[in-house]
Design goal:
- By secondary structure, the chain is an alpha+beta fold.
- It is built from five helices and five strands; from the N terminus they run αββββααβαα.
- The protein has a five-stranded antiparallel beta sheet with strand order 4-3-2-1-5.
Length: about 190
Amino acid sequence: RFFQFIVISALAVGVGFGIWVVISCEFLIGESELLQVGVFRYSLDQEDNQLNTGGACTAHDDEANDAYVRTSQISALLAPILGFILLLFTLFTQFCCPVPCSGLIMGISHIGAQVCTALVWLIFNAPICDAVECKWSVASYGNIVAQAMYLIAAMCERCMPAPKKRQAKQKKQREADADGENQAAMAQTGLD
């Protein structure tokens, strides 16, 4: 039960922080702290700059986005989606019923969530950060927490006990195998 709690909690926290990274406008911050860059939005409060947004978060200009920013955006969206898939499969396999190919789907989702969470860091190459040096901000730490939670969930999932239904089925199978061996041994001794 301990590992079930750890895995489910870690996945829920990872998904929550992943969503926060997507909606936040504070993934990176400029040197002057007037520039805040999120994965999908930015804020610039500087009078003499043509990008001035008056401190409000504004969507990145699609034409100004390059492959790094687009990759970061897609990865930021995919990471919590994959984490949520992991959470659903974990809940179903542990508490409801076995799901076909769940091990394969969960393994792919674990790797995908880790890779996507790591690819969010490509936002450091955003064109808006070319003029000023961008540094980590609050949501950057949220991305690190999400990455750590997905990793903890992946490690602890391997230590989770089998669901009770599967444990009962395995126990019956072992007992049947033991009974079969005992009967075979008795028949063998009776023949001698």
